[in-house]
Amino acid sequence: MIYFPISIPFWASCLCFYICYTQAKLHHHNHHHDHDHHENKQMHPSASNTHYTCYGDGIFDVREFGAIGDGVEDDTNAFKKAWDCVCQSQSQTQSPILWVPHGYSFIIQSTIFTGPCQSPLIFQVDGTLMPPDGPKSWPKNNRHKWLVFYRINHMTIKGRGLIDGRGQQWWNLPCKPHRGPNESTLPGPCDSPIAIRFLMCTNLKLQELKIKDSPHFNLRFDRCVRVRIESISITAPASSPNTDGIHIENTNDVQIYDSFISNGDDCVSIGSGCYDVDIKNITCVHGHGISIGSLGNHNSQAWVSNITVSDSTIRHTKNGVRIKTWQGGYGAVNRVKYENILIENVRNPIIIDQFYCSTKQCSNQTSAVLVSDIEYRNIRGTYNVRSPPVHFGCSDSVPCRKITLSEVELWPVEGRMALDAFCWNAYGEMETMTVPPVYCLLDGTR
User: Fold this and answer.
1) Of 265, 266, 353, 373, which is the active-site residue?
2) Where in the chain is the domain with CATH 2.160.20.10?
3) Which of 267, 338, 284, 282 is nearest to 309 (CA)?
4) Domain topology for 50-135+143-178+190-265
5) Catalytic residue list contains 33
6) CA-angle at 177, arms to 171 and 179, nearest 5°
7) Residue 334 DSSP code
8) Catalytic annotation on 34?
9) Tens of pLDDT along 33-50?
10) Which CATH architecture fits 277-446?
11) Which of the residues 26, 107, 117, 256 could staple to 87 if both were Cys, CB 3.0 to 4.6 A apart?
12) Given this model, what pLDDT does residue 41 score?
């Protein structure tokens, strides 16, 4: 037998390799031990460390897909990988969860989360989500949206974290209304992104979310069915332009419950194509109140039906409950009920405006969106007397019909003189005496 001599340096190299390998395995074990409460998160990097294989039905922590969460690094790709895994997961027992952990701030670029997914899922926001900070940090050709959910069925977005839109720099663009004299706009593109948008989604639930300082609309739903929003908070300064809280368009079977919205535009806005909407126990502060419209812009068709707003409070807003349509449009708004609403220091508590015009240069037209079957019941509180507390301004050719008022009491704020109601071509009745009395309603339905 022939023996080959082995040098001491060779043995030293082997020993060094063994020690390093053992430490690496121990570190790997401890790392997973730290997260043993999420042992069902099934994501593992491949040998190339650039591709992820998903399996299992558990919790998908965005950190395990490479997210840093330091508020500086771009975590977009990690969220896309986590979404792919949670969307592909097929669970027979529980909904897979995309988890945004508490104590971390994640920056995400404009992103579309696309379905359909294999099973109902949960997007759990316990940490903070943020977009790039200001227009200069966004790509010039992709400024209209931030987080978009497209064609997803059975998704719940919830958590006690924060969605921070970082909208301050967007609000101060020269194209915003408050930048020019007399609220005029100045040259320059806006393209301010909507914070969260849902397109063609069904069976959505949003719970316990906190959203602040959106550059534009906070939540927008287009062509969605069966939406439930409850116990959410939306905040932005009263001076922030176009920061509508919740906007729905061509969306039906909507429930908005137990929520707080303080912003610079409509608290809730309901666009064309919406029906079966129930809004209950919400508080609106600042902004423009709860609006149906605007409808019929550019001579378009608009339909809205079966809307209920009840048991809610509206404070220090420009409008209370409002229906606004453009001249020249056509279609109808009907079966709308406002009930048990507290009004506190609101400029226009009750208003129907069929002469809506955002430019103040609109010409008179004969066609209009028909407004009918509108009920106001138990609407009480105070107004700030800058304009009549009840204003029904209806089309010359298409009058408002079947307006009903019962137990309406609107008083001027302390020390102010009461104003009369205003009506123009509006038909309806007072079922009880109102304050102020709305004697200007025309009898009959025409």
Assistant:
1) 265
2) 50-135+143-178+190-265, 277-446
3) 338
4) Pectate Lyase C-like (2.160.20)
5) no
6) 70
7) E
8) no
9) 333 333 333 333 323 344
10) 3 Solenoid (2.160)
11) 117
12) 38
